[in-house]
């Protein structure tokens, strides 16, 4: 479906329960300074969507606004045709790794179990069944043998995988990930990509904030170029173009472009 | 292993408390002539007196709940808010006293005073949160402003009360420094009950509070009401602070919230165990502290409780099983010694190899190596080498002959062969698989080889099968004497790596 028709459908206000995420006219402002402007897009089911854009383009803000973590100035967000608070159980969130204190006295398994707290409910204890589920999630990201390590004794990549496992354990249908590939080792990157492909094959939808432009065409079938406004959104091969990138990154791209080109050249000669 | 460690952790807390009691006892005895009679000491230590018993039990429960709730406060980084809150209670207490005295009653009716404290403490906390929301105001500035303004106002009101001589104002200062001596049985009951209820709430909400402390934003994305949970935590801190005022005093109550969990962190990496240990540490510090204060009527219990607390903190910081400094030092010393011993054996072995080059008939079992030659191999000082040799001798690896030469024992030779074997495998690996020049490789191999696992050695052997015949020590990929030249050039770096 094209961006145009989805906008029209949104404008009529009809909700579509099969649509994992529908954002209409979303604007977010900090101290009256807009960070995300008039963002409208629909994410079809079963897509891996990469969100790219320069620093300060509002990528994290967009994810947080979708989950009602920060107040919206205007606009509407529908998750599976419903308000986020009613569809919460179908959404898994992977925050940025730097957002927590990794010296905290908990083990990797404890962190993953936190993904089940909502299901477990208030005042009820964590049982063996929950811990087994958490172990299964750790297994999926390939670090089950580190389950009982205190989280400060994990490498950056392992910490990132722990966060991913915490989202996986929820068995959600829509995943929102804030830079899961930031500063991870090659093995972790591979493990995460494998998990993403698996999720996609199960018909789940994933939105991922991403920094490495080079791997965008390889990893994502859908792509959003964001710089406060949506520059382009759609199938990667259609929208991930030099012209759109230029519009998104402005003058800053030239350097990046050169670097990417240099990398490509080196890749050929090697 | 883990079982014994965790059991030890619990036992150690108990032992510490007993030890502290033992330390305290002789101090009483010394003061016998001046202020204390043996009778007094026995009365307190044996808890003979009903009032003492209740006061110690009450403050013990207070310490327990403070340690428990302090763990959450510390992990949520709200500890200083507790400090500001306790300071902000003073004007409320003063005003409550005034109202009660003017109403004709005894101004010091405890529930009324505490209610006054709750109200002004609450206003203080709300002001901090309000000021913190303003633009260009950081939370620490808000804390500083509210803390000092409220405390200043409180002091002014207390002075006013004393000048008015409305009611019997003496004893109000016990809220500032804490005084268990002036505590009545029913006050202790109130403290104990409030502490118990606060602890119960914290335990029941453990899961939710843990999530809040670790990752509040994620908690919110999961639908947990962050503001409500923070409010609950603040309320718990408030309860502990308010009921603790009389025993510990508003200046020092923060210590009972912060020090026990900080001490507990040295003993464990698990939050459940940390809160439990903090509760136990808090309980013993408060109980012992208030007992000591009961013996010396002029000594504020706030001070004695905090001093007991910090003593436990000091012991924990040094001897904590998971993060204690002594453990850390011991590990470093052990690694340092292992590395030193391994360097010695390899140096001696390489000296033998050098000698064999000129004299192929030489048998490694019988050949001797001058200490001076070994000293030149690495950048160790003569003193350092001497202590390394002494230790190796103790292990039965080398014999230090009277003519300043070394001979390897049978066991030492086996060990030295294995070490040289591993060292060179690693060197070869670095050269063939990691693109490192042979002249640089010795130092890189040096750093890693001490932590090579048997499985890694096997992997290396498999990888380098072609280059090295199995079971033999491969020849060094670089001239052995190069080390001699190298050692002078890189003296400082080598010194560092030997220690690391």
Description of the structure:
The complex is a heterodimer of chains A (270) and B (500). Chain A is built from twelve helices and nine strands. By secondary structure, chain A is of the alpha/beta class. In chain A, strands 5-6-7-3-8-9 form a six-stranded mixed sheet, sandwiched between helices. In chain A, a hairpin with a 1-residue loop joins β8 and β9 (229-235). Chain A is globular, with a radius of gyration of 19 Å. Chain B has 500 residues and is mainly alpha-helical. Chain B contains 22 helices and three strands. Chain B has helices spanning 2-30, 38-45, 50-75, 79-102, 110-133, 139-164, 174-177, 185-204, 206-214, 216-221, 226-248, 253-264, 271-295, 301-319, 325-358, 371-377, 382-395, 410-434, 438-449, 454-463, 482-489, 491-499; strands at residues 369-370, 398-401, 405-408. Chain B has a three-stranded antiparallel sheet with strand order 1-3-2. In chain B, a hairpin with a 3-residue loop joins β2 and β3. In chain B, α3 (50-75) runs antiparallel to α11 (226-248). The model of chain B is unreliable at 1-16, 18-34 and 482-500 (pLDDT under 50). The chains are: A alpha/beta (270), B mainly alpha (500). Chain A binds chain B through residues 31, 64, 67, 69, 85, 88, 91, 93, 95, 99-101, 104-107, 110-111, 114, 117-118, 120, 122-126, 150, 166, and chain B through 75, 135, 204-205, 207-208, 210-211, 213-215, 217-224, 265, 268-271, 274.
Task: Pick out its properties.
heterodimer, A: 270 residues, alpha/beta, six-stranded mixed sheet, three-stranded antiparallel sheet, 12 helices, 9 strands, globular, B: 500 residues, mainly alpha, 22 helices, 75% helix, 2% strand, elongated, disordered N terminus, disordered C terminus
């Amino acid at each position: 479906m094209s961006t145009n028709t989805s906008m029209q459908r949104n404008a009529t206000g009809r909700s579509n329960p099969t649509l994992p995420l529908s954002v209409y006219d979303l604007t977010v402002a900090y101290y009256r300074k807009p960070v995300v402007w008039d963002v409208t897009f629909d994410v079809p089911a079963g897509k891996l969507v990469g969100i790219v854009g320069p620093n300060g383009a509002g990528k994290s803000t967009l994810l947080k606004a979708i989950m009602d973590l920060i107040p919206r100035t205007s606009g509407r967000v529908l998750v599976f045709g419903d308000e986020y608070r009613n569809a919460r159980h179908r959404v898994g969130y992977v925050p940025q790794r730097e957002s927590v204190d990794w010296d905290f006295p908990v083990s990797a398994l404890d962190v993953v179990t936190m993904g089940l707290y909502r299901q477990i409910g208030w005042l009820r204890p964590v049982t063996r069944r929950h811990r087994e589920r958490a172990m299964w999630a750790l297994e999926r990201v390939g670090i089950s043998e580190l389950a009982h390590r205190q989280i400060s004794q994990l490498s950056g990549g392992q910490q990132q995988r722990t966060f991913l496992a915490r989202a996986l354990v929820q068995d959600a249908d829509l995943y929102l990930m804030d830079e899961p590939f930031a500063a991870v080792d090659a093995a972790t990157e591979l493990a995460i990509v494998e998990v993403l492909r698996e999720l996609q094959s199960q018909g789940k939808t994933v939105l991922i904030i991403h920094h490495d432009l080079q791997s965008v065409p390889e990893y994502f079938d859908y792509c959003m170029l964001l710089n406060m406004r949506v520059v382009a959104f759609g199938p990667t091969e259609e929208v991930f173009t030099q012209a759109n990138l230029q519009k998104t990154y402005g003058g800053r791209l030239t350097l990046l472009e050169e670097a990417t080109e240099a990398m490509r050249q080196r890749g050929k000669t090697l | 292993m883990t079982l014994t460690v965790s059991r030890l952790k619990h036992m150690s807390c108990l032992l510490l408390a007993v030890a502290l009691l033992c330390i305290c006892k002789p101090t009483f005895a010394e003061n016998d002539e001046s202020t204390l009679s043996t009778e007094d000491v026995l009365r307190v230590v044996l808890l003979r007196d009903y009032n003492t018993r209740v006061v110690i039990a009450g403050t013990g429960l207070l310490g327990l709940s403070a340690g428990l709730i302090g763990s959450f406060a510390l992990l949520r980084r709200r500890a200083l808010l507790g400090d500001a809150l306790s300071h902000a209670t003073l004007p409320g207490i003063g005003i409550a006293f005034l109202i009660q005295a003017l109403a004709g009653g005894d101004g010091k009716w405890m529930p009324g005073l505490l209610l006054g404290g709750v109200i002004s403490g609450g206003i203080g906390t709300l002001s901090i949160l309000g000021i913190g929301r303003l633009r260009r105001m950081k939370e620490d500035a808000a804390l500083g402003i509210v803390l000092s303004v409220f405390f200043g106002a409180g002091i002014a009101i207390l002075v006013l009360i004393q000048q008015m001589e409305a009611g019997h104002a003496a004893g109000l200062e016990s809220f500032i420094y804490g005084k268990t001596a002036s505590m009545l049985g029913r006050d202790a009951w109130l403290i104990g009950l409030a502490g118990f209820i606060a602890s119960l709430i914290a335990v029941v909400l453990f899961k939710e509070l843990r999530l809040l402390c670790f990752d509040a934003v994620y908690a919110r994305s999961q639908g947990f009401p962050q503001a409500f949970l923070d409010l609950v935590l603040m309320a718990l801190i408030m309860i502990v602070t308010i009921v603790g005022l009389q025993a510990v005093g508003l200046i020092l109550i923060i210590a009972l919230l912060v020090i026990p969990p900080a001490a507990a962190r040295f003993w464990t990496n698990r939050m459940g165990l940390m809160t439990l240990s903090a509760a136990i540490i808090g309980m013993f510090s408060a109980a012992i502290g208030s007992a000591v204060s009961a013996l010396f009527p002029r000594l504020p219990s706030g001070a004695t409780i905090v001093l007991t607390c910090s003593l436990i903190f000091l012991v924990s910081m040094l001897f904590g099983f998971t993060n204690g400094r002594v453990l850390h030092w011991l590990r470093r010393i052990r690694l340092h010694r292992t590395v030193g011993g391994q360097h010695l054996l390899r140096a001696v072995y390489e000296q033998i190899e050098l000698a064999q080059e000129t004299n192929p008939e030489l048998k490694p079992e019988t050949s001797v190596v001058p200490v001076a030659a070994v000293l030149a191999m690495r950048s160790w000082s003569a003193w350092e080498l001497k202590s390394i040799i002494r230790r190796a001798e103790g292990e039965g690896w080398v014999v230090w002959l009277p003519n300043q030469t070394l001979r390897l024992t049978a066991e030492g030779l086996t060990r030295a062969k294995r070490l040289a074997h591993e060292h060179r495998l690693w060197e070869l690996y670095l050269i063939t698989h990691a693109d490192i020049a042979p002249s640089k490789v010795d130092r890189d191999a040096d750093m890693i080889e001490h932590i090579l696992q048997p499985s890694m050695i096997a992997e290396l052997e498999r990888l380098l099968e072609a280059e090295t015949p199995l079971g033999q020590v491969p020849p060094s990929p670089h001239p052995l004497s190069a080390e001699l030249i190298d050692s002078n050039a890189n003296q400082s770096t080598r010194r560092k790596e030997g220690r690391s």
